[in-house]
Amino acid sequence: MHSSASAGSPLLIDQGRIGTRFYVVFVSLSLSLAFELFDFFIVGFLVSAIAPAWQLSFGQSAALLLTASVGAMVGAAAGGVLADRFGRKRILLIGASLYPIAAAAIGLVADGDWVSFALLRFFVGLAYGFGGVAQFALIVELTPTRLRTVLTSASMVPIGIGFVLAPLSMTLLFEPLGWRGLAFLCLAPLLFVPAFWLLIPESPSWLSSKGRTRDAVRAAASLFSLSPDHFTAPAPAVAPTDGEAKPLRLLDFPRQFAFCLLSFGFHSAAVAGILLWGPLVVAMLLGLSPQKAAGYFVLVSVSGLAGRFLFTYLSQRLGRLTTGQIAGYSAAVLIAIAALFPQSELFGIKLFVICLILAALFFDGAFANLQPHPAEIFPVTVAGRGVAVSHVASGLGKVCGPMVLAVLAGTSNVVKPAATAAATTPGFLIMAGFFAIGAAAFTFLGTETHKKPVVV
Prior knowledge:
Layout: H1 10-15, H2 20-54, H3 58-86, H4 88-105, H5 114-141, H6 145-154, H7 157-184, H8 193-199, H9 204-209, H10 213-224, H11 254-286, H12 290-318, H13 320-340, E1 345-346, E2 349-350, H14 351-363, H15 366-370, H16 374-377, H17 380-409, H18 417-445
Antiparallel strand pairs: 1-2
Membrane topology: Multi-pass membrane protein
Protein name: MFS transporter
Subcellular location: Membrane
């Protein structure tokens, strides 16, 4: 049904010598992820500050946390279809231009206007999901097979930097800038848009899958700063039929489809539940101000960043499947301990906090292995939609995960310490179960792609 990778455009990528131009493109695509995730997750810290001040209920607070995830699902679904039809680059440029503007506009919302806040967060997610699908597909499709596992995993490390920047900004800049000033910082990713437009070529793999062989060769040549004559052109691809352009074609790959739903859905549900409610939970359990609670999450984020380096290494040594299982099952055990002993102490520190910091090494580090994977397991002709499935599943998880604690605490209850403490143990035990299910997807549904070329 599909041509082999050896007969298609991945040969173009594999013929190139890694040079300066490739690394500039790769670093630009990767480093921008740090600021994208800062924009996406800063809301958890903003809500920890405005929820008490605006007297928001758990339901209203959850709406502020979750609307971006709903928007990301819609944006990813649309972006995946359009990226497969019109190419990766233009979809990336549209999304990368719009989401920072929507994120910064939150700083203009009037005090108490949580509805406008939630609507803007929806547009943040919409634009992020729209462009993110194309971005992850490009990262995989522009990387030579021999280095793809390690480099695409390494490209997820800057996301960990974004997780560090969010609590660090809250800790250091909340007092001088206020929550509105922190929102305005979300304009920073706009700086990457000109670099994307000028430097990044269209995916040679996508061009080849559309039968545009000459364009594919020129794109590969520009990526590696080589003459087009350097490359042996791939055999012309068979032009896609109308049926191949339909999203339902994803169902031709049920194992991969199910894997994306379960691994991304449940893992993201647990991570979102922990990271979005975590600052508030720590503040309430320890009786700290939002600014001081964010200080603990600097340590959580640093642990997660270290985990991304660790799992970049492990994915290259052990492959995608073994690495995914180690990350998911380990996170499940640590979060279960945190849930069962939230008030216990070790060396004078709450065991809940210790386990949270250690668990981040695994649950955040896991994304270095997990995030690039959908673009590897689906053929290029549907890879955009395959990545979209993972984004939609992730978005569903990011809605369902945080809602667990909100429902357990009572969505109509005002945020307060007693309600938060009562919901912590059952809520975080459920998060541990979610991590275990995500890991089980690697065990029973995973497809090993390490050192294997993508399929056109």
